[in-house]
Amino acid sequence: MVYARSLTAIPHLAHLSKLLQRLPPIDISEHWTPRMTRYIPLVRATQPADPTSTPIAYDRKAVIQDLVPYSFLHGRYDDIYTLTPRKNRSLWTALVQGHYEWNPSIKEQFDPVYTPKDREGPPWFTVKELSHWIIKHTSLQRIRGIPQHTSITVYMAKPRFLRQCWIQANPKKYMLPSTRIPMSPAPAIMMSNSQWKLFWRLPLPHKVRNCWWRLLIHKIPDRRSTRHAHQRSIDESVCQFCQAVIEDTPHMLFFCPRKRSFWQIARFTMQIDIPLSSIWDTLNFRSKTNKITMVKLAYILLVFWQMHWQCIFQEIPWNTTNALVRLRRLRWLTTPD
Ligand SMILES: [Zn+2]
User: What region holds the Reverse transcriptase zinc-binding domain (predicted)?
Assistant: First the structure.
């Protein structure tokens, strides 16, 4: 969709445009008069005469009336053969030289003797002008072994039908993960009041606590839980560092083999006296330890969080040495000792 980018400022419209993009594209109808066709993007109204020729550069958001002036007085296009447009000149030249061509339905509207066909009803879109916009659906239920094909005009289709068609066309997009048991409830649900008090009283800077709190309420944006927002299938949601398994929260923060060495080294450097195997349980408040160790663990968790996103955004592999440098700097900046 040509305007999708300009709509990002308004979330509701941006979402609507995403939904519209799931519909089949609408073809230009011969019933559309210049009054309507002048808003058709040039991308849809023109095409290369030879499909193998190199595409030319022009404004992708431009519509027909940006290139060919529309006469409001006569309700038709002005005589296009006398003009030289100021904008999108490369496209214009290509059209004149024959490297590009207009859509046939549009081209006939430029004819000086063109008169709009007599239409009934109002000058805007009517049902007739959208009747060629059809969506096809094959039902999973067969009647006497014959699959049932349905085709409905888009404007008549109910949201339920549109959703079914879309899911059928993209079966992988909404597949749920099957390799693991469903996610366990968030640790926050199991935590007692005294554990919460302990958590809020730990002497931690806000950014350190924030990351840990997200872990407790299961709101870490790992690849599995963000897959719907990015329209990724479950197969595309594997860990970016080891490519082996789907990246859920435990894998992202603790169990990824690439990151595991950092936990080992950090445990040694920070002089944490609990075994590596119980660190994850301690972070989730399933096993007890002293306050000092908890603070240390929280700092390591934050470094994990920061390094993870640095590596993802810069598209570089995980680097334990860099993570360790970051951990030392963080400790030095935030604690007096
Ligand atoms: Zn991994």
Answer: 193-263
